[in-house]
Amino acid sequence: MPHEPRAGRLARALARAARLSCPRCGGTRLFSSWFTMARSCALCGLVFERAQGYFVGAIYVNYAATVGLVIGGYLILWGLTELSTAAQLALWLPVAVLFPLWFFRYSRSLWLAVEYLLNPEP
Ligand SMILES: [Zn+2]
């Protein structure tokens, strides 16, 4: 859609990423199970993994989100509560382990959506 405003394209891409659906058509799911990603869209044919190692960038997205959550959460609780460092560690260590597993699909979806937004046709 060449005449669509940039903000509209960004909002649509992010909404499709949040729904874990194809960034081009939004009609199919990116994942068939928790960790299994479809090779391409069944409706529009968009190949999701455009090159070998394409989703390495999604690892950085996942890492940045995890670090932001854990460090940000630690600093907020450090400023607002009297929790000890051991209590903070007991709270945030499981988050640091489990959050990336939950966020895995969203990091790939976000990576794909933003890359598709910047480079619509491979
Ligand atoms: Zn599609």
Query: Which cofactor or ligand species appear?
Result: zinc ion
Radius of gyration: 17 Å
Helix content: 55-70%
Mean pLDDT across all amino acids: 93
Describe it for me?
The protein has 122 residues and is mainly α. The chain has one domain. The chain contains three helices and no strands. It is elongated, with a radius of gyration of 17 Å. The protein starts with 5 loop residues before the first helix and ends with a helix. The mean pLDDT is 93. It binds zinc ion (ZN).
At a glance:
With 122 residues, the chain is mainly α.
Q: How is this fold's topology laid out?
A:
Layout: H1 6-18, H2 56-80, H3 85-118
Helix pairs in contact: 1-3, 2-3
The structure holds zinc ion.
Jot down its keywords.
single chain; about 120 residues; mainly alpha; 3 helices; about 60% helix; binds zinc ion
